[in-house]
Design a protein that fits this description.
This protein has about 950 residues and is an alpha/beta fold. The protein has 29 helices and 33 strands. The chain has 5 domains: about 30-150 and about 295-380, Response regulator (Rossmann fold); about 150-295 and about 380-405, Response regulator (Rossmann fold), CATH 3.40.50.2300; about 455-545, D-Maltodextrin-Binding Protein, domain 2 (3-Layer(aba) Sandwich); about 555-560 and about 665-795, Periplasmic binding protein-like II (D-Maltodextrin-Binding Protein, domain 2), CATH 3.40.190; about 565-660, Helix Hairpins. The longest helix has about 40 residues, at about 815-850. One of its GO terms (cellular component) is membrane.
């Protein structure tokens, strides 16, 4: 067999090798370079480097991605901005990178690299939030891509936690370096103010890497916190190394104990999965704010397996190998770049502008969540997971987002996370607080037996019934008594149901404004006394719920004015009451007269006699002294109702007049403050209170005399040194109760906020004491204390002279007037109707049988005749020559001589002309008419 085929085979192998080399060379030419600047000495940098390497490897090994391969050049940060700037320049110029991933943790460092990207027009991806709005960032750094959301959301989350637990003052702790950004702190301060809280103090810790003895430096800063009252600490930004020294020193001096609260921002909370056990044990009970991401997806589980394998091999000294949010965002940044390269193709991927635009238009679901970039930053709102450090790790408490607030669970709907049962407050039942406290921490330096609450008490008061300080004989001790002291002791009984409150009273002999200043200066923790709530004070101290009203009143001596007593009898009724009473009296009088004067001889006679009788009857009925007999039943009904009205009116009038004559009518000697200003009269007040300044500055009074004791006021009035005294309402009440018939309040009241206890600004004790005061108000304890301390003097007839007996008004009696008037009217109408009815019957009989008048006689003529008839004072008539033989003629002797006959009354006419009469007489004398 010939050996010729071997050269051919060798030739084919050489050709294949050559083609393979050419293919590899072509493939190498299609590789795209990127750079990554990370801190490989930190946990965050290690996670970022591992995640970026995994993302690049996954892309390069994906069979679908054969257009270009990605090569990454890692560089380590040097903590020197100039050196990092030079590193970025080298990546662009020497390595020809098409993108740089910046893993720096400060915005200022990132901004320097962003300038490089702007100058060379290559995309720069960062993981820190800019100090400016996304719009301004895009204008200044158009090639910068921020793989993060605004820090404002985390600030709002911190503020929501503070508001939820009603903490009023907090202390901010953050690690500082030459690139630190203060804008986040300023925004947090403004947000807290909107929620009623404020930053009491800021602790700025230097980077421990730049210190020879970081522990001592941190200890000096932490010890300063013991002088602060707030025990709510927010670690806004810190590295793990600096935080380790911070928590260790804080725990050593007791700042991690009871009634303390710690809140960790995401700079620490996101690393809770990777920190060591000593670090976790030093922050037991702290609350953390973690960036939320889903661990249940298949993509995350695949990434987690790759990450742990590589991380353990690269960093065997690390205790934990679970990936955190920093690793996920680094992976998503490479994914966004790879997707842009894939979409552009080989030729277009070299165009930096097109590559940048494609990255900025990214919209996909990554490992860290939804990645949608708008204006150069992630637009999807962040959801934070609230955790509580317990045991060896932490436990979840729920979630928070700007849209829904706090919630316990998250649900997925259409690929987007939504909140369920959102709330503005966090549930505290599941939280394990520092020191194993079983209630929400007060966030305040609570008093202890070794360091009790120092309470200032006014040692010099004008009215000792409110506060009185006495020195115990033969000792240095003092006795505290008064209404305010007893009220505070009742408050302590309620507070002791939740916690103890050790305290010590300390008298202060200065003025009340100076005493308030001592609380502002933190000499005293609180004030128990009769302190008035004022606008200028509430800016610097915390007042409790007021336990007494407050206001300024003018008290003056009384003068007894006897000139008005002559007309006192008119005061029981108002003018309208007198007018209506008189009107109903006259109306009743006319009704009684009209119905009685025809049938009752006592109401007959001349017009003036009839009027006099009617008036006498009506007026005498006011005293139930009338003697006239009543004939008509209608009149009796009217009189009965009238007498009932009279009985009620006279009884009410007598009672009202008696009260007016019995109660002293105290007239002020000074009517108003204008007279004091015109005459420049001297007035008195408590010079140790705010009243003196108020009189000068607001009321513009000049002659003011200081009076230090309530017993001096009567002496000053009697000696004529003062004409008026200005007292706060609680003191005025006490003064008038002891001198009730000698002084009276004149002029208007100038209102203030009330009397209350005082605490340091932001103290949670003020809120607890306020709740206790409200409880004492509702259960009647406060009223009992007032009655015990401010009892009415035995010599007082009436405490409040201004409480005069009021005149009786028509509104109290209009019903009786209506019944009386309606009864009189109805009876009068019935009487007239019955009168008209019988008049028609009797008149018709008379005219038809006696007179035979013309049937066409007008109605008014008949009516006039009836009225003339009933106006006749002597209704007796005689019918002559009436015989039985002419009975059919009804007593008419001669039809033509009818004019001789007299008109008879209807009652007698009914008898005479009755067709059934069997006893006709030639002559008949009729007596008086029978009454109806």
């Amino acid at each position: 067999m010939s050996p010729k085929p071997f050269p051919k085979l060798i030739f084919i192998l050489k050709a294949y090798i050559l083609i393979s080399l050419l293919t590899l060379k072509a493939t190498a030419n299609e590789t795209i370079e990127i750079g990554a600047i990370v801190d490989v000495n930190s946990r965050i940098g290690k996670e970022q480097k591992t995640a970026i390497a995994i993302a690049v490897e996954n892309y390069n090994h994906d069979k679908i991605n054969h257009k270009q391969l990605i090569t990454v050049h890692f560089r380590n940060t040097s903590k020197d901005a100039i050196q990092d700037l030079s590193t970025a320049e080298d990546l662009v110029e020497k390595n020809n990178v098409k993108m740089i991933v910046v893993g720096m943790q400060t915005w200022e460092e990132t901004a320097l690299v962003a300038d490089i990207g702007k100058r060379h027009q290559i995309p720069i991806i960062s993981f820190v939030t800019a100090s400016y709005t996304p719009e301004l960032v895009q204008l200044k750094w158009p090639f910068l891509v921020q793989m993060c959301t605004s820090s404002l959301e985390q600030i709002n989350c911190i503020s929501a936690i503070v508001r939820s637990y009603q903490w009023r003052r907090i202390i901010i702790i953050y690690e500082d370096d030459m690139y630190s950004d203060s804008s986040m702190l300023a925004v947090l301060s403004e947000t807290l103010k909107g929620d009623g809280a404020e930053i009491e103090h800021q602790v700025i810790l230097p980077q421990t890497s730049s210190l020879s003895d970081p522990r001592e430096v941190v200890r000096r800063e932490v010890v300063k916190l013991l002088r602060k009252q707030s025990r709510v600490f927010v670690v806004l930004r810190s590295s793990v190394s600096t935080a380790s020294h911070l928590f260790k020193e804080a725990k050593g001096i007791g700042l991690m104990g009871r009634d303390s609260a710690w809140i960790l921002s995401d700079s620490l909370a996101d690393l809770l999965d990777s920190v060591d056990s000593p670090f976790v044990s030093s922050i037991q009970g702290a609350l953390g704010i973690k960036n939320q991401y889903s661990e249940a997806t298949k993509s995350f589980q695949d990434f987690k397996g790759q990450f742990q394998k590589i991380f353990r091999s690269e960093y065997p000294m690390e205790d934990h190998s679970e990936p955190g949010i920093h690793a996920l965002k680094a992976y998503d940044s490479i994914t966004a770049f790879a997707m842009a390269v894939n979409n552009l193709g080989t030729k277009s991927s070299n165009d930096s502008k097109l590559l940048k635009n494609r990255i900025l238009s990214s919209n996909f679901t990554g490992l860290s969540g939804q990645v949608r970039i708008v204006d150069g930053a992630l637009s999807h709102p962040s959801t934070f997971r609230i955790v509580n450090v317990v045991g060896h790790r932490y436990k979840g408490l729920g979630f928070w987002s700007a849209k829904f607030g706090f919630s316990e669970v998250l649900e997925a709907e259409n690929g987007e996370r939504i909140q369920v049962n959102g709330s503005h407050t966090m549930k505290s039942s599941e939280v394990k607080w520092p020191g194993e406290l079983n209630r929400v921490p007060k966030g305040w330096a609570m008093p202890t037996d070794s360091k009790p609450l120092i309470i200032g008490v006014p040692g010099r008061t004008s009215f000792e019934k409110f506060v009185k300080v006495e020195k115990v004989a033969n000792s240095n001790e003092r006795k505290y008594s008064g209404f305010c002291i007893d009220l505070f002791k009742e408050v302590l009984k309620i507070l002791e149901q939740n916690y103890t409150l050790p305290y010590e009273f300390e008298p202060y002999d200065g003025s009340y404004p100076d005493l308030v200043q001592q609380v502002i200066n933190r000499r005293y923790d609180a004030i128990v006394g009769d302190m008035t709530i004022l606008a200028e004070r509430i800016k610097y101290v915390e007042f409790t719920q007021p336990f007494a009203e407050s206001g300024l009143t003018m008290v003056v001596p009384v003068k007894f004015d006897g000139s008005k007593k002559a007309w006192m009898f008119l005061k029981p009724f108002t003018i309208s009451m007198w007018i209506v009473t008189g009107s109903i009296l006259v109306y009743t009088m006319l009704v009684v007269w009209f119905m009685e004067h025809q049938s009752n001889p006592e109401f007959r006679g001349r017009w003036k006699d009839q009027l006099g009788t009617a008036m006498w009857f009506t007026f005498s009925s006011l005293f139930f002294a009338h003697r006239e007999n009543i004939k008509s039943n209608y009149t009796k009904i009217v009189v009965v109702v009238w007498l009932f009205l009279v009985f009620v009116l006279t009884s009410s009038y007598t009672a009202s007049l008696t009260s007016m004559l019995t109660v002293p009518r105290l007239e002020p000697s000074v009517k108003d403050i204008n007279w004091i200003k015109r005459t420049n009269t001297t007035v008195g007040c408590d010079g140790d209170s705010f009243v003196k300044d108020y009189l000068r500055q607001v009321l513009e009074l000049q002659n003011i005399k200081n009076i230090s004791n309530q017993e001096d006021y009567p002496k000053e009035f009697e000696s004529g040194n003062i004409k008026a005294a200005f007292l706060e309402i609680p003191y005025q009440k006490v003064f008038l109760r002891e001198h009730c018939n000698q002084y009276v309040v004149a002029g208007p009241n100038y209102r203030f906020g009330g009397l209350a206890f005082v605490f340091q600004k932001g103290s949670p004790l003020a809120r607890d004491v306020s709740e206790a005061i409200l409880t004492l108000t509702q259960d009647g304890t406060l009223n009992s204390l007032e009655e015990r301390w401010f009892a009415l003097s035995r010599n007082c007839d009436n405490v409040d002279a201004s409480n005069e007996t009021e005149s009786l008004t028509l509104g109290s009696f209009w019903g009786l007037y209506l019944v009386s008037g309606a009864t009189s009217t109805v009876c009068l109408l019935f009487f007239i109707w019955r009168l008209c009815r019988k008049s028609r019957q009797h008149s018709q009989a008379y005219y038809d049988n006696v007179v035979h008048p013309s049937t066409d006689q007008c109605f008014w003529t008949k009516t006039a005749g009836i009225i003339r008839y009933y106006q006749n004072d002597n209704p007796t008539v005689s019918l002559r020559r009436v015989t039985s033989g002419r009975a059919a003629g009804l007593g008419v002797e001669e039809r033509g001589s009818s004019s001789r006959w007299h008109l008879v009354s209807p009652s007698d006419a009914a008898q005479v002309f009755d067709g059934s009469s069997q006893h006709p007489q030639s002559s008949l004398e009729m007596g008086n008419l029978r009454s109806e």
